[in-house]
């Protein structure tokens, strides 16, 4: 687990710095060792047969869907701000998730929060509590589909 976390952190360091200078690599190596040591207690990254397919799903399926949904939500919120006559119906909603792992729920909650017009307030067992700028329905299945449906289906394949 420690080695796997180190590898992921070190390669992330290289990607973020974009440098192969020896001094940069040595600092990245040292920082990665320390962070991996801290994280090994709390999080395990496993390189198994599914690791590559999960990365591919995340990068090529989830990220494009997330970016598209974020653009749509930004346009919707911008229209509401620029046209105050557009109705809003703000409210708090609860949606149940089929995700079981904490990392899956975290990714879903963050995806919802990063999409303008929605804000995840709490995650409790299998439920997410969300503030929604325009509550369109009270039906639990419709709420879930409108807020988290696309994200949840893909994240289930990535993390679980």
Automatic annotation (TrEMBL):
This is Na+/H+ antiporter subunit E. The chain crosses the membrane at residues 6-39, 51-71. Coiled coil: none annotated. It comes from the Bacteria. Pfam families: MNHE (PF01899). Belongs to the CPA3 antiporters (TC 2.A.63) subunit E family. Keywords: Cell membrane, Membrane, Transmembrane, Transmembrane helix. The keyword Nuclease does not apply. Signal peptide: none annotated. Its main location: membrane. The lineage of its organism: Bacteria, Thermotogati, Thermotogota, Thermotogae, Thermotogales. It is found in: Cell membrane. It is a multi-pass membrane protein. PANTHER family: NA(+)/H(+) ANTIPORTER SUBUNIT E1, NA(+)_H(+) ANTIPORTER SUBUNIT E1. InterPro entries: Cation_antiport_E. The keyword Endoplasmic reticulum does not apply.
